[in-house]
Amino acid sequence: MKSIYKPFIIAFFCAILTIIQAYIAMGEYAKELSSGCIDCSFNEVLIKHAIVLIFIPIVIMQLVSTFIFKKQYFISILIGAFLIFVWLKIINTDIFETRVSSWSSFTNEDRDSFVFKRSFQPISICIIIYKIFILILDKYIKQPQNSLE
Hints:
Blueprint: H1 6-26, H2 42-53, H3 55-68, H4 73-99, H5 108-140
Helix pairs in contact: 1-2, 1-3, 1-4, 1-5, 3-4, 4-5
């Protein structure tokens, strides 16, 4: 398989993982009204988040792992895991904020603490699944040799 497809395969896989993770972490609020979009369903919000937000860390991770830390695979794994964690927590925070905390009296600290507790396990599992997927994908998609080396 050609390496030109790799970023698209990764982005699609990450979009699916984003939806699954957010549904596991914040799915109990699916029937709550959203203060940001009264007419939007929970699934619509998840798909929008998955499409818009997940592409940013994927692009950054690919740039970091391909050009900056190509020889230091462990550092690129740590940076990638951190970026995925931050972006998925942002998605979960937005969902919680629009569906729960905007209708009640949560402080920012309470909101962040609650979202972190609800999100840590699903996000961690998604990061592990993502890294396994990348290892498998790297095995089947060969990167072209960089002429600068």
